[in-house]
Structure formats: C-alpha cells, structure tokens
Amino acid sequence: MSSTENLITSIQGLSASSGDLSALHRILKGAEETLRADSDLQLSTLDQLDPSKHSLGYLYLLDVLTCGGPMSKEKASEVVLLIARFITSCDAEQIRLASDKFVSLCKGFKDRVLELEDPLRGVAPLLSAVRKVQVSTKRLTALHPDCLQLCLQAKCYKAGFSILSDDILEVDQPRDFYLYCYYGGMICIGQKKFQKALELLYNVVTAPMHSVNAIALEAYKKYVLVTLIHSGQFSVSLPKCASTAAQRHLKTWSIPYTEVGNCYNEGKISELQAVVVAHSSDFEKDNNLGLVKQAVSSLYKRNILRLTQKYLTLSLQDIANMVQLANAKEAEMHVLQMIQDGQIHALINQKDGMVRFLEDPEQYKTSEMIEVMDSVIQRTIMLSKNLIAMDESLSCDPLYLGKVGRERQRYDFGEDFDTVPQKFSM
Amino acid sequence: MERDEETSGPMMEMCTNGGEETSNRRPIISGEPLDIEAYATLYKGRTKIMRLLFIASHCGGNQTMQLEALRMAYDEIKKGENTQLFRDVVNRINGRLGDKYKMDSAWCESVDRRAEQKKGRLENELSSYRTNLIKESIRMGHNDFGDFYYACGLLNDAFKNYVRTRDYCTTAKHIIHMCMNAILVSIEMGQFTHVSSYVNKAEQNPETLEPIVAAKLRCASGLAHLELKKYKLAARKFLDVSPELGNSYNEVIAPQDVATYGGLCALASFDRSELKAKVIDNINFRDFLELVPEVRELINDFYSSRYASCLEYLGSLRANLLLDIHLHDHVDTLYDQIRKKALIQYTLPFVSVDLSRMADAFKTSVSGLEKELEALITDNQIQARIDSHNKILYARHADQRNATFQKVLQMGNEFDRDVRSMMLRANLLKHEYHARAGRNH
C-alpha cells in the first residue's frame, strides 16, 4: 500500500521536466513487479493522477491494471472508456519514452473493443494514438495495422484513408508492414481508389521474403482482381522485383484467380462468368466474391474502351453486339456511366442511336495543368533527394561496409578503385 | 491396241516438244487445272515421284487427276530401283488402272536381288579400298554407297554415307559434290536445317563457285527458308538465282517454282521500295517470271494498286499451288499476308476512304471489310478509325504534343511509385540484415 502511495506521489512530483521524467521512468521500471503483485490496486487509484500531465505514470498503472485476463462485460467497457480517455488526452512526449508499453496497451485496447463487438468506439482513439506514437510521418509504427483493422471492421473507410495518405518510407517490422499494406489496400478498395490500393498491394506482393506467408497470399489474390478492375490487363508473371519465393509459390496457391485473370484477357464475358461460377465457392471462402463481381463488370468497360480506339462512330446496337450486352439500352447505360466517370469522351445521339467517340479534349494548356505538372516535378525532386540521402547513410553504415570489406576478394576492384577503406576488410 | 493408245499419247507430246523439256508453249503453273504430264516433265529423279504422289493424295475428289498421277508415278518408279515406293503405289492404285498397273512381284524380287548383289559388291570394294588407304577411292566408294541407298529409297543411310565422304575430300570440288548430295538427300527427307548448314558449308569455299552451282545453292537455301517460314529471306534468295540455272536442278526444283515461290514470298514480305527494286526491276528474275505469266501479272497489279485483279489471279492460282509439295503448307499464310498488305497499301495515301468503294475493290462485303480493318487497326498496322454510321474510314494521326504531355505525366507517376516501393524494399532488407546481424553478435 505504502509503496503504491509513494509511487503516486513520485509520479505527481516528477512529471514536470525531461530530466525528472527519465528519473521517473527508472523508478517506474523498477517498481513494475511490485505493482503487479499488489492486489489492492484499483482503477480508482488512477483518479489521483491527471492523464495529460502524468501520462507516463498513468500509462504504467493502466497497463498493470488492464493487462489481466478475461473480464466481465461491464468491467471491460469501463476499462475501454478509461483507456480511450487516456489516449485522447495523454502527452505525446511522455508516451514516446515508453512506446512499447503504449503500443501493447493499445493492442490490448483493440482486443477488448473487438470482444465487445463495438469497433466504432475504438477508431477515434486509435487514430490519435497512431499520431502520438509516430516519431515522424514517414515511419511506420506497430499501431498502424491495428488502427486500419478497426476501421475495416467498423466500415469507416474515410478515417482509415486519412492515415494512408502519409507516405511511409521507413519500416521496422516486416509483419507490421505487410498487415498495414494489406488492410490499407482493402480500405482503398472500399473507397474505390483502386490506384492506391494497387500500390499498397503491390508493395506486399513484391516485398522481400524468404517464404510465402499468408498475408502475402491474400494480398496477391486481391492484387490480381484489382489489376483487372483498374488496368484491364493481367499478366501471370509477377514483377521482376518480387522475391524468388513469391514468384515460385504464390501462383500455385491462387489458381482460381489466375484463371479468372487469363479468361479476362480473352475478353469474352460469357466465358468469364462461367469461370467465376465454377470457382465461386473458393471466392466466397476468401471473402472476395464482391471484388470478383466488380472485376466482371469492369470487363464490359474494358471492351467498350477498346472500341473507342477503332471506331469513330458506332451504333448502340453494334456496341451491344460487340461487347455481348443484352440490348442497346444497357449499352447506353454503360457508355453513359463511363462518360460520367471520365473514362471515355463521347457524345450519344439518341435520335439515331449512335455514339460518337471524341478525342481527349485536354489540351495541356491551362494553368491548372501547369500547377499539376509543377507539383509532380516538386515531388519527384523531393523523392530523389530522399533517395540520395538514403544512399549516403547506407554507405556510412558500419555493418554494410563490413560486409563489402569481407567480400573484397570476390570483386576485383583494382588498385585505384578502392571504394571501401582498408580497415574494413577482414 | 489398248497399250498403244495409252503409251502413244505422251510419246507424241514428247515428239512435238522436240524432246526438250523447257520449251513448253503453255505455262504450266496457271489458273487452269493442272496438266499433270506437263508438270511432271519439269522434274526428274525422286522428286518427280514424290510430287506425283503428293498430287495424288491431295487432289481432293478428282479421280481422273489422281489416277493420272498414280499412273505416271508407277511408270517412273519402275524405271528405278525403289521397291518400297513401288509397293506403296500399287496399293494406292488398288487395281483401278487395269492389269498393267498391278503388283509385279517378279520385278520386285529381281530388283531386290540385284540390290543385294550390288550392295555386296560395293562393300567388298569399299573394304579393299580401306585396306589400301587411298583417299580418293574410299571417297568414291562411300559416294557410290550413298547413291545406291538413295536409289533404293533408304535416305538415312544415303545421308550418312555422303557425310562420311567428308573426311576423304581433298579438293574444293569434292566438298561441293558432297554438299550437293547431302543437300539433295536432306530436302527429300524434309530436314531443312541440314540443308541450311550444308549450303553454308559449300558457300564458305575459298574458290569462287561456278554460277550454276551458286544458283543451285541459292535455290536450296531459299527452299530451306521457305519451309522455316522465313519468307523474306526465302524471297531474297530466290530473287538472287541467276537465270543460268535453267533446268539443271530438276531433281529438286524447276525454274517455274523459283519464279512462283520467289514472287509470292516477295509480295507477302517486301515493302514497296524493295518490291520495285528487287522484283520488278530485276532483269534476271524477269526471265523466270516469263515462265509464269500469271505471277508476273499479279505482282504488277499489286504494285499499280489494281487489287481486284491481283486478288483474282491469286484466287485462280490457289488450287494448283495447293498441289505443290513445298508450298502446300504456306499458301494460306502467304495469301493472308498479301491480302493484309493490299488493304494497308490501299488506305495509306488517303485521309478518308469510302468503305463501300473499298469493298468493291476487294470484292468483299462492307461488314466483312469492317471486320478485317478492325483487326488491322488493333494490330496497329493501320492508323485510322472507322465511322460506322457513314461507313467511312478516317485516317487518324496522333497529336504528338498531347501524347508527349500524357506520357510525361504518366512517367512521373510511375517514377514516384517505383522509387517509393524501392525505398521500402531497401528498408525491409536493411532491417532484416540488422536483425540477422543482431542475432549473430
């Protein structure tokens, strides 16, 4: 009892400056065991502390109190409320001192929220948690995938999308990264932003890995379907930068999807639908049936797009025949939809039932277009700078230099081309 | 009585022709149904028999033609020593030509016996030459063996023996002799890769070749390219054949064939300038084209854009070309390519083309023409778009400026994506490396 009292007073006292905070941190680390053993510790003791000022101490106590096993529903909901309030009001500086603890606390929070089957409660707190734990917007934290998972469960895609708009350039844990990309891809699919979804899924599929893991496999299946929807082409071979393990094994595990892809390339709707029906049980098992249906409907769009390359005017009935639609009315609907989406430029003459395809009216002369080009140029310059910085930091990395030094004998650089100083050769 | 009638026919023709085989008044390869006798006189040796048998098996339901071909084949085989082919032909005739053309087992046995004796004699001679170690005799011995096997129809053994003479060749003439024999057997066997390699070997000869030999080699090489579907190279080789070839290569190819193969392959694969320079203005090749006036006409028609008559000639020649042993597999592809070239050439000079007039020019319906044009546009061989409402084809030239802008923006986005992916992958690798290094230390 007294040790807890002491602890609380020291927390209250030492939470002011950074020097005090490091001292406090040491005390807390030492006292953790005793805290856990203390069975009198109650949630009410937390009322003595202010989460925004005494975040570090609050964090430790909360962790001890809530990391216990299964709780009753009321207790769980009370705990959830407490943690949510803590997360929203805690001080980011203090939290970062004990980021591992914070992360595990949040993960526990997420589990409780999912147990309560109320993911919506957890979305906002976790969003702010991610922002607080992040050291820089370029770095992936362990909380990103959890936050995205909750957003998916709660179906608030917009919230999840706001996290995805950061560019992640540095990654610590591969598993976090895979999950982040996979969930991120799913959120983008939900928002119908297929370009970004494709990017994220592509990153998972081509990530370096020694053996195929389940996340990569699921991501590959979705990647195949999204490529069909977005770019209308499918190639069985993976990009060259994918790891050899992925290249060899991913395809064998996702045969129904590659079949759909190959059939799509042929361009015949009826065959594609037959293939889909044949494998519908597989698709349902993977929860991909909705995506597959979207892919099938995108085949119509792709075929109509191809027609614009060859024809200047075409009757609606001809379009319907060539694309295998039922009648001219459906063809009109499809073409109208595509014009509205901006995928084609055309004029429909309802009197004759003719469609006239136009060229892209974009002349690239407006000031908006210049702004767009300018921003793209700036972005490219920034990226190049990042790349050069990365290269420089790598060439100063002792581990890397050690490895090159060791392999010096393998590469005959010649006397006058010594990239690595002698002291690194072993 | 019957006999006289049957045999006097060809004999009379031979008399009126003056005994020569090239001065036929009527062109042999033309739109009319093939005159088998005249066709057969163009060739000699084994190829004559093979061609006749090919015609017999590919002439469709035309009984008279089939029987005619089989009869001539029978006569020709009996002049030789190939009993296997003899049995084959007799089976095919199946008694339909009467008593004279049935199985003559006595003849077979006597030929086989003679063959055995000859083989024994040749073997003895060869072994004696071998013990004497006279190179020239050994070479002649193997050569004789090769000839013997070739006459009997055992082509593989013939080829082996001809190739064995290589070790005993002392002069360039010997080497050329060996190459020509090897080429002949390879063509009969249908192994055209060998043909190419032996032609190369012969052409690498340091001495200049006689013009006739050079022409023969070019024919052989052209045939090889044709079989391998390399129509442009085949055309070039055939067009280079000098007219001195005449009939000297009858055991493989006739000058009419050189003209036909060369002309069609050139039409299917050359562009306009090459067609003019190498075919129309080619003085040497003109002599060959005189032998097949229909091919000459159709090439001129194509060049002067008279597509309807060009395609008409092609159509009429088709039936006979399908009976040719070397061209049979390629007729459809070549025709297809020629037709496509005609369509492309037709649309090239115009900004807009009325599809109904074009359909008339090509003797096809407007909807059929639309489908063909669609295929060509998809392949990017015609830069145009079809106005299906008014049935007009409009040429479409891409706007370079817009296309450039579009490409630039796209490239910028791709660079962005790729570099970010790369940095992520590098990060993952670095992390893995650190993790592994951490574990080792």
Automatic annotation (TrEMBL), chain A:
* InterPro entries according to UniProt: COP9_N, CSN3, PCI_dom, WH_DNA-bd_sf
GO cellular component assignments: COP9 signalosome; cytoplasm
Q: For this UniProt record, give its keywords in alphabetical order, as a comma-separated list.
A: Cytoplasm, Nucleus, Signalosome
Q: Which SUPFAM superfamilies match?
A: Winged helix' DNA-binding domain
Q: Which Pfam families match?
A: COP9_hel_rpt (PF22788), PCI (PF01399)
Entries under Gene3D superfamilies matching the protein: 1.25.40.570
Q: Where is the PCI domain?
A: 193-362
The domain of life is Eukaryota
A GO biological-process term: ubiquitin-dependent protein catabolic process
Q: Where in the cell is it found?
A: Cytoplasm; Nucleus
The similarity comment for this entry is:
Belongs to the CSN3 family.
- Identify this protein by name: COP9 signalosome complex subunit 3
Please name the source species: Brassica carinata
Q: What is the lineage of its organism?
A: Eukaryota, Viridiplantae, Streptophyta, Embryophyta, Tracheophyta
UniProtKB/TrEMBL annotation, chain B:
* Recorded GO CC terms: COP9 signalosome; cytoplasm
Give the PCI domain ranges: 230-400
Q: Name one Pfam family in it.
A: RPN7
Q: Where is this region: Disordered?
A: 1-28
Question: Is the Nucleus keyword given for this protein?
Answer: yes
Keyword list (alphabetical) reads: Cytoplasm, Nucleus, Signalosome
- Protein origin, superkingdom: Eukaryota
Give the main localization category: cytoplasm
Q: Where in the cell is it found?
A: Cytoplasm; Nucleus
Family to which this protein belongs: Belongs to the CSN1 family.
What's the protein name?
A: PCI domain-containing protein
What is the phylogenetic placement of the source species in the record? Eukaryota, Viridiplantae, Streptophyta, Embryophyta, Tracheophyta
